[in-house]
Design brief:
Oligomer: heterodimer
Distance between the termini of chain A: 36 Å
Helix content of chain B: 40-55%
Number of strands of chain A: 0
Number of helices of chain A: 13
Radius of gyration of chain B: 25 Å
Number of domains of chain B: 2
Largest sheet of chain B: 9 strands, mixed
CATH superfamily of the largest domain in chain B: Periplasmic binding protein-like II
CATH class of the largest domain in chain B: Alpha Beta
Helix content of chain A: over 70%
Strand content of chain A: under 5%
CATH superfamily of one domain in chain A: MetI-like
Order of helices and strands of chain B: HEHEHEHHHEEEHHHEHHEEEHHHHEHH
Radius of gyration of chain A: 23 Å
CATH architecture of the largest domain in chain B: 3-Layer(aba) Sandwich
Strand content of chain B: 15-25%
Number of strands of chain B: 11
CATH topology of one domain in chain A: MetI-like fold
Structural class of chain B: alpha/beta
Number of helices of chain B: 17
Chain lengths: 288, 425
C-alpha cells in the first residue's frame, strides 16, 4: 500500500501535467467544437454538429486540406530521404565528420521563429538567394509569391530545420547495426546495395518507423513557418490546416468552428499514427 | 526510511509553496498598486517619450498607480496580436484601435464607454472634439474611444531625387492644378531607376496586406469596397477596375512601385514619393535631402482625401477599467491632447488650427492647412465594417491574385465580391 502511494506521489507531477495541460485542453476543444464560441465577445451557444456540417461544405477547408496533404507528401519523403542519406555519409570515417554532424544538427537548436525570419529575408525577391543565383546568370522567381514556389519554399525551410534531428536518429540506428553482419555478407559476395537492402534497412527499420511517425505528425502541425514566411498566401496556396485553425480562432474569432477543424485534424493524425503502428509488423524488423 | 525522506521533502515543498503564495498578495497589498498596460503599434522614440511623460505625470497625483506600461506591437499584425491577447484572457487595459476595427470591436462589446468619465472630469470639454472625428466611436450617450490621431494620407516626397530625375516637382504640379494620379505616376516613372534601386512611389503601411489603405488611391477613381450600408460588395465596379488597373500598371508596367517582396525605404533617400501620414514623417527634418508634401493627387472622378484614424480605448476585459478610464481621460484632456499635435493631427477643434499644427509639427502653416485642416474637412475615414474579421482575410488572399504581372484584374475583383458578399448581408 505504501509503495502504491509513493508511486503515485512520484508520478503526480507528470499525471497532473497530463491532466491539466493535455487532457483538459483536448476535452475543452471537443466541447467547444459543438458551440458557436466567439473568444472576443465570450458568446458561446450550443449548436450541435453544425460546425462539422459546415466543415464538410466549406470549400476553403477542402482546399486547405489539399494543401496540407501536398505539404506532408513533399516534406515527409524529402526529409526522411535526405536525413538517411546524410546519416549514411556522416557514418563513414573521414576527417571533420563531427564538425559536419554539428553543422547539420545546428538548425534544430535554433528557434523556429528566428530560423524562419532569416529565411524570409533570404528568399525575398531582391534577397540574397536571388542575388547569388543571379551571379550565375539565373533569374530567380519571387520565391514567396510566384506559384508553385511558395509551397516549395515553406517545405524546404521546414525540411532543413528538422533534418538534423532525423539524421541523428538514423545515425544512432546505423551505429547499432552489427559490423560482423557486413563482414559475413562480404564473404558471401554481397555488394553494397545488397548490404544496404538486406542488412542496413531491416536493422534500422524500427528507427524509420519512429522517424516516419514523428515527421508525419509534425508535417500536419506546421504553423510558424507558414505564418511567418507567407501568411498562407499568395491566395490560399500555402494555407495549411493548423494555420487555417489559427485564422478561424484568432482572426475570424470563430473558435467553435476552429475547434471542429482541430478535432478533425487530431482524429486524422491519430488515425494515421495508429495505422502506421498497425502495419509495422509487415515491414519493421523484430516486430510481431 | 526512503518514505520518511520523501515525506519530509513533500512537507518542505508544501511549506515553501504556501509561503511563496502567501507572500505574493501581501506584497501587492502593501504597495496598494495598479499596473496599467497600453498596446500601441508605434515604437517611435518620440511617441513613446510622449506617452511615458504623460504616465509619469499621472503617477505623481495617483499613488495607486504603480506603473503604466506601453507595449509596442508590429503594425502589420497589430490587431491580430491584440485580439489574440484578448481571446487568451490577457487583454491590455488600454489599446490603440485602428479605424478599420472600430465597428468590429464595438460589435463585440470590447470597448468601454468612457463618456461618463469625460463628462464628470472638470475642464475635459467633450464638445471640443469634432463630431465627424467621433463618428466611428460614438453612440447615443456613449463614447468608446478618444480619436487621438485623425491623420490624412498625403504624398511626402524627396524633392532632390525628383529634380535629379528631371521630373516636375509635385508641389509645382499642385499649384498648376495638375496634381493628378496620372501625373503622379509619370513623376514616379521618371524617378524609377532599377540600377540604383530607386523607386517612384511606395506605401509602407500597405505592404500588400493592409488593403483597406488602398482607399487612398481608389477613392480618387470613385471606387469603394462596398456600398454605404456595407451590404453590397462594389469591388467589381468599373471604378474599382480602373483604380486597380492603374495601380497594377505602376507596379508591373512602369515598375515604379516596389513589387511584393521588394524592399524600399523612403527615409533612406531612394524613393521619390511615399504615401504616408504625418505621424510617420516626424524624422523628415533630419534628412539630408530636401523634402516636400502634397495632398493625395486628384483622380479621374474625384479629389478625394483618405484619413486614417486611431482611437485610444479602454477594453471592457481590462481588470482595471476604472483606473484605465481615468488615465485615458487624463491623457486626452485639452492640455495633454495639445502635446500630441507634434505627431498626430488632433480632433479637438482648437488644435486643428494650422497655426497650432505648424508650431508643433514638421509642417509649415500652409502645409498644415493643406494637408491636415483641408484633408480632414474634405476626406473620409478608411474603410471599416462590423464583419471585418470575416471579410478582411478573404479580400487579402483573393487580392493576392492581382499582385503578379499577368493578373486578370476584372476577374480577380469579381472573385473578391463572390467570396465576401455572403458576409456583407
Amino acid at each position: 500500500m505504501r509503495h502504491w502511494r509513493t508511486g503515485l506521489f512520484m508520478a503526480a507531477p507528470v499525471l497532473l501535467g497530463f491532466i491539466f495541460l493535455v487532457l483538459y485542453p483536448v476535452v475543452s476543444v471537443i466541447r467547444d467544437s459543438f458551440t458557436s464560441y466567439n473568444p472576443l465577445s465570450g458568446d458561446a451557444a450550443f449548436i450541435g454538429a453544425d460546425n462539422y456540417t459546415r466543415l464538410i461544405q466549406d470549400e476553403t477547408a477542402i482546399e486547405v486540406a489539399k494543401n496540407t496533404l501536398i505539404f506532408a507528401c513533399i516534406l515527409v519523403p524529402v526529409n526522411m530521404a535526405l536525413a538517411l542519406f546524410l546519416a549514411i555519409l556522416l557514418n563513414l570515417h573521414f576527417r571533420g565528420r563531427t564538425t559536419f554532424r554539428a553543422i547539420f544538427f545546428s538548425p534544430v537548436i535554433v528557434s523556429t521563429v528566428a530560423w524562419t525570419i532569416v529565411w524570409k529575408y533570404i528568399l525575398q525577391d531582391d534577397g540574397p538567394f536571388n542575388y547569388f543565383i543571379g551571379l550565375a546568370g539565373v533569374d530567380g522567381p519571387n520565391w514567396l509569391r510566384d506559384n508553385p514556389w511558395p509551397m516549395i519554399s515553406v517545405v524546404m525551410v521546414q525540411v532543413f530545420k528538422n533534418l538534423g534531428m532525423n539524421m541523428i536518429f538514423f545515425l544512432a540506428a546505423l551505429q547499432g547495426v552489427p559490423e560482423e553482419m557486413y563482414e559475413s555478407s562480404e564473404i558471401d559476395g554481397a555488394n553494397r546495395w545488397q548490404q544496404f537492402k538486406k542488412i542496413t534497412m531491416p536493422f534500422i527499420s524500427p528507427t524509420i518507423l519512429l522517424v516516419a511517425i514523428l515527421t508525419i505528425a509534425g508535417a500536419f502541425q506546421v504553423f510558424a513557418q507558414v505564418l511567418l514566411l507567407t501568411g498562407g498566401g499568395p491566395g490560399l496556396s500555402t494555407t495549411v490546416l493548423s494555420y487555417y485553425i489559427f485564422i478561424n480562432a484568432f482572426q475570424i474569432f470563430d473558435l467553435g468552428y476552429a475547434s471542429a477543424l482541430a478535432v478533425c485534424l487530431f482524429v486524422f493524425v491519430m488515425g494515421l499514427t495508429v495505422a502506421q503502428w498497425q502495419i509495422r509488423t509487415r515491414w519493421v524488423f523484430r516486430e510481431v | 526510511m526512503k518514505a520518511k525522506y520523501l515525506k519530509m521533502i513533500a512537507a518542505g515543498s508544501a511549506i515553501a509553496l504556501v509561503a511563496f503564495i502567501g507572500v505574493q498578495p501581501a506584497k501587492a497589498a502593501a504597495n496598494g498598486s495598479i499596473t496599467l498596460r497600453m498596446t500601441m503599434w508605434s515604437s517611435n522614440a518620440g511617441h513613446l517619450a510622449l506617452f511615458k511623460g504623460l504616465a509619469d505625470e499621472y503617477k505623481k497625483t495617483h499613488p495607486e498607480i504603480a506603473d503604466i506600461k506601453f507595449e509596442s506591437l508590429d503594425f502589420a499584425t497589430y490587431t491580430q496580436t491584440l485580439t489574440t491577447q484578448i481571446a487568451g484572457g490577457k487583454a491590455p487595459d488600454l489599446a490603440w484601435i485602428l479605424e478599420k476595427d472600430a465597428q468590429q470591436f464595438r460589435k463585440n462589446n470590447l470597448l468601454l464607454n468612457v463618456l461618463p468619465q469625460m463628462e464628470s472630469t472638470p475642464g475635459y470639454k467633450v464638445e471640443e472634439i469634432a463630431a465627424g472625428s467621433l463618428g466611428l466611436w460614438r453612440a447615443p450617450r456613449s463614447v468608446y474611444a478618444y480619436p487621438f490621431s485623425t491623420s490624412p494620407f498625403a504624398i511626402f516626397y524627396n524633392a532632390d531625387l525628383i529634380k535629379a530625375a528631371g521630373a516636375e516637382d509635385p508641389e509645382a504640379l499642385r499649384v498648376k492644378g495638375e496634381w493628378t494620379w496620372t501625373n503622379a505616376a509619370k513623376v514616379a516613372k521618371a524617378v524609377t531607376d532599377y540600377q540604383k534601386g530607386n523607386y517612384g512611389l511606395n506605401f509602407p503601411t500597405f505592404n500588400y496586406t493592409t488593403w483597406n489603405g488602398l482607399a487612398a488611391i481608389w477613392r480618387g477613381f470613385g471606387a469603394e469596397a462596398w456600398n454605404k450600408t456595407g451590404t453590397t460588395c462594389t469591388f467589381n465596379s468599373k471604378q474599382m477596375n480602373n483604380a486597380m488597373t492603374f495601380f497594377h500598371s505602376m507596379i508591373y508596367k512602369d515598375k515604379s512601385f516596389p513589387a511584393p517582396g521588394v524592399s524600399s525605404d523612403f527615409f533612406a533617400g531612394n524613393v521619390g514619393m511615399s504615401l504616408i501620414q504625418l505621424s510617420r514623417a516626424a524624422s523628415l527634418p533630419t534628412m539630408k535631402w530636401k523634402w516636400g508634401v502634397v495632398p493625395l493627387p486628384k483622380g479621374p472622378v474625384a479629389d478625394a482625401q483618405a484619413i486614417g484614424q486611431a482611437g485610444m480605448a479602454v477594453l471592457t476585459k481590462s481588470k482595471n477599467r476604472k483606473a484605465a478610464a481615468d488615465f485615458l481621460v487624463f491623457a486626452t484632456n485639452p492640455e495633454n491632447a495639445a502635446k500630441y499635435v507634434a505627431f498626430f493631427p488632433q480632433s479637438r477643434t482648437p488644435l486643428m488650427d494650422p497655426k497650432v499644427i505648424a508650431k508643433a509639427s514638421i509642417l509649415n502653416e500652409a502645409q498644415a492647412k493643406l494637408i491636415v485642416a483641408d484633408g480632414i474637412s474634405k476626406g473620409q475615414i478608411l474603410t471599416s465594417h462590423p464583419n471585418l474579421s470575416a471579410i478582411e482575410l478573404t479580400v487579402k488572399s483573393t487580392l493576392d491574385g492581382l499582385w503578379k504581372a499577368d493578373a486578370n484584374v476584372a476577374q480577380t475583383l469579381n472573385d473578391v465580391c463572390t467570396k465576401i458578399q455572403p458576409n456583407l448581408r
